[in-house]
Write a structure and sequence with these properties.
16 helices; 11-stranded mixed sheet; alpha/beta
Length: about 500
């Protein structure tokens, strides 16, 4: 096994920039690691080895020309919900099997322009609907810490690829926790940027008012470097914020919390969290306090309604967005023998092409939007969303950031909650309020409980994403002293070690 795969993105970028190693060597080392371990993990749905090596050659030429970026030549795993020209994009669904987009998502364009090498597309819950990556039409992804357990969802493939050293960087998307929850249970770092801070052009929509692409890595600095590349205004995205990107890299490097007020959300702690999760959270708070931060208790009373509001808003938007998959324009087509009507072909295709969780949410959303029920369900959920946003605004008058455990538990076993949708949905109880309000959030490793990773969540006001990295960097620095480096490097039985 090459030593290169254990190095972080920042270190690899420095080695490549100095000419000590080539991007091709680094890329090949990660392709070899994918070949070695992904049969056990199933993090990747598609590996573009030839394309990745070609991109690496271009990155090496850019270095030679003196035109390279901060992450030039560093490999990355891309969640299969973002389009990449000519590369299969399935969103983890049979209904898009074989579709090769004719265009790049803006995030992909920015990655290519920065010389970042895209290794391939990662597994996910179908159309990002799930918390475990068990809902993929192409089989579940497994957690490298314990292959009998889930890697979180919907972006379990991206997080597992990081934890298994198959890539030093990844892109995820977060609609209700789909970056942060996988980061928490795999011992990696994941950031959900401010809504509108990273372009959604080319991100196949689940819930348009909630979806947000974001950076994932094994350290806070690596995540910041990736964030800096993919963020910024995009005229192709009507929801994109036309404002300067906060200097997240400088914040990650400063890692200074002295004088900051950090709010502990009462409604996102206490009962319902496993003891090991609660203990690691308390220890992290103590570290931040020892570094000069002031810890303040904050109440956000409407957060208790967030789960219910989310599971009306997100399915409602999904029922509208997924209507485009009609067997008429692209993707799967079933029963088109010339004798059936378009409606029959559409019905047969959607029956075969969509999985059970997607069908469940389409039905829920269609019902919530139907005549006579719109005001009672979808309309009421939007009012709750406003109240949650107001809770955040009031909290930020008292504190600089809010914190909580990222998930109530560590990774559970595959199949353990498959038959209980409500138990599955409760995994996102701490992450969903962030998406409803459109604010920024990070999950970073806080240690282990019974040998499995625990996540610490930081929440910052809109367009104050740099605060995530300031606090996260400070906490990580102290924890790395205890662990002698990133948490993933410490696991004795981690797949990929």
């Amino acid at each position: 096994m090459s030593d290169l795969i254990k190095k972080g993105a920042a270190e690899l970028a420095t080695l490549i920039a100095s000419g000590e190693v080539s991007s091709r060597e680094v890329t090949q080392a990660h392709l070899d690691q994918i070949e070695r371990v992904d049969g056990a993990i199933n993090a990747f749905l598609y590996v573009d080895a030839e394309g990745a090596l070609a991109q690496a050659e271009l990155a090496d030429k850019a270095r030679g020309n003196g035109s390279s970026s901060a992450l030039n030549g560093v490999p990355l795993a891309l969640k299969d919900v973002l389009t990449q020209k000519g590369i299969p994009t399935t969103c983890g669904s049979k209904i898009l099997e074989g579709w090769r987009p004719p265009y790049d998502a803006t995030v992909v364009t920015k990655l290519k322009n920065a010389g970042v090498v895209i290794l391939g597309k990662t597994n996910m819950d179908e159309f990002a609907m799930g918390s475990s990556t068990e809902n993929s039409a192409y089989g579940p992804t497994r957690n490298p810490w314990d292959v009998q357990r889930i890697p979180g969802g919907s972006g379990g493939g991206s997080a597992a690829a990081l934890a298994a050293f198959e890539a030093p960087l990844a892109i995820g998307t977060d609609t209700g926790g789909s970056i942060r929850q996988p980061a928490a249970v795999t011992g990696t770092v994941g950031v959900k940027p401010t809504y509108g801070g990273v372009s959604r052009y080319g991100l196949v929509a689940f819930s348009s008012s909630l979806d947000q692409a974001g950076p994932c890595a094994r350290t806070v600095l690596d995540t910041a470097l990736l964030h800096q590349i993919i963020a910024g205004h995009d005229p192709k995205d009507a929801t994109s914020i036309n404002a300067p990107v906060p200097d997240v890299v400088a914040a990650a490097k400063s890692a200074d919390v002295k004088g900051m007020k950090i709010g502990v959300v009462q409604e996102l702690s206490g009962d319902g969290y496993e003891k090991g999760v609660a203990d690691r959270f308390a220890e992290s708070l103590a570290i931040l306090e020892s570094l000069g931060a002031e810890i303040v208790e904050v109440s956000c009373p409407n957060f208790k309604f967030a789960l219910g509001a989310y599971y009306l808003i997100a399915p409602s938007e999904a029922s509208s967005n997924l209507a485009r998959f009609d067997a008429m324009r692209y993707g799967l087509r079933v029963g088109d023998d010339g004798a059936r009507s378009a409606e029959e072909v559409m019905s047969m295709t959607r029956e075969v092409g969509f999985g059970s969780e997607v069908k469940r949410r389409i039905i829920l959303g269609t019902y919530a939007l139907s005549a006579g029920y719109y005001d009672a369900f979808y309309g009421s959920a939007q009012k709750v969303r406003t109240l949650i946003t107001q809770d955040f605004s009031q909290a930020y008058q008292k504190v600089d950031v809010l914190v909580s455990p990222t998930t109530p538990t560590v990774a559970f076993k595959i199949g353990e909650k498959s038959d209980d949708p409500i138990a599955m949905y409760l995994n996102d109880v701490a992450t969903i309020p962030v998406n409803l309000a459109g604010v920024a959030s990070m999950s970073l490793p806080a240690g282990l409980s019974e040998g499995l990773p625990v996540g610490f969540q930081i929440i910052a006001p809109a367009m104050k994403d740099d605060r995530l990295y300031r606090v996260g960097g400070a906490l990580e620095r102290e924890l790395h002293k205890q662990w002698n480096g990133p948490l993933t490097n410490q696991a004795p039985n981690l797949v990929g070690q």
